[in-house]
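User: Hey, my collaborator sent me this sequence without any context and asked if I could get a structure. I don't really work with proteins. Can you help?
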Amino acid sequence: MQACCDLEVAVNGEEVFILDKKTLASFSKRLAKLFDLFSPSKPSLILDKVLDCVIGRLASPVVASPYTSSSDNSSLQSSSDTSGYSIRNNSSHVSWWFEDLVFLNIDFIDKVMKMMITQHFDHATIVKFLFCYQRWRFLTATPTEKCRIMEVIINLLSLLDRSYLYCKLLFDIYRVASSLKISKHCKSILENLIGSQLDQATIDFLLVASPQKKHYMYDVNLVLRLVNAFQNELSRCLSPVRLRKVTIVLDSYLVEVSADSYLNPSKFAALVLLLPDSARESHDRLFQAIDIYLQVHGGICESQKMRICSALNYAKLSTDALRNLARNSKFPSRIAIQGFLNQESKLESLLEGQEHIDTFSGSSLLGKAEQLDIQLQGMQCRVTDLEKLCGIVHTRIGNIPRTRLSSLGNNARFLPKLCS
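Assistant: No problem. I've predicted the 3D structure and written it out in structure-token form, which is a compact way to encode the shape of the chain:
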């Protein structure tokens, strides 16, 4: 017994429970039945000691035991594969125990995970296990059990470091939770978790179908809550880069939902006014979304149009956007006039800038021409001096006596041509 059992649990100094190292892997179902005898909601010293030793064992880099029932392994493997998360594929030095805890009911999982968090267990491993547990247990759980599992998992995720939570996985959880009757409190916790990671989202994540009995196409209220949750998170840790990412995704979302004929003006106005003006470097994409919405919803009143258009910053619109705005009959006349005035102002600024460039270029060219003229005059003076020097040389050569030249005889051919 001593050779194979080395984890002892002492209770009140009276009894000693010995856990074999292979117990978790070889007898996980029996362990689950043992835990069923206890109520996790009631304090139990024995249970706490057992769980403490179990968690200590989970922290060891040991792979799953080869003695585990082959039928159990095959059923677990096929079930987890069909769910998209293979627990077997997660077998490693940190996740070998996944398949040995999925048999526990959710209340014990809640207790075990909280103890693991308290003992600073790796949060990334806990996240992986919770998603694997949810996928596998949902294969056989009743609707009531699914609801309970989802609520516990959401509460556990909220206790973890959010840097280990991925936006895609959180949206997967949200889609599953939306089909269940989970509490509003848990749903709010999940939305806050998603909102805190919203800068990781893409347009596809946000295009969640609207709830039943709603005519509009997408769940706009969800996006409003998520962006508000993100801004609350951002207020604690300002990050212009993260805000910029969310702005880009939100503008794409606005263009997508603006064509929905059932989206009422108040909801669309809430969307376009959701972020502060400083979040956008350009308002062209926002103008595009508003333009589409006003074309589709031509019957809305002037005050509603004005409220929607109040989100536009004309100084951040390009010249082309301002030109389209000035000629667009769908926009209120006051907005169109303002766009025209801003367009004229931008054109005047461009013209002034061009004149400045032309003036600068002209003065620069004039300076270069003057320099070339001075250099040319210098060259002409040099040529004149050379011509005078050449004339003097010719004069001196003409004064040399002929007899002196004739005395050279045949060597005369060696005289320079200039002297002949």
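In plain terms: The CA atoms of residues 290 and 415 lie 95 Å apart. You can pass these tokens on to your collaborator as they are.
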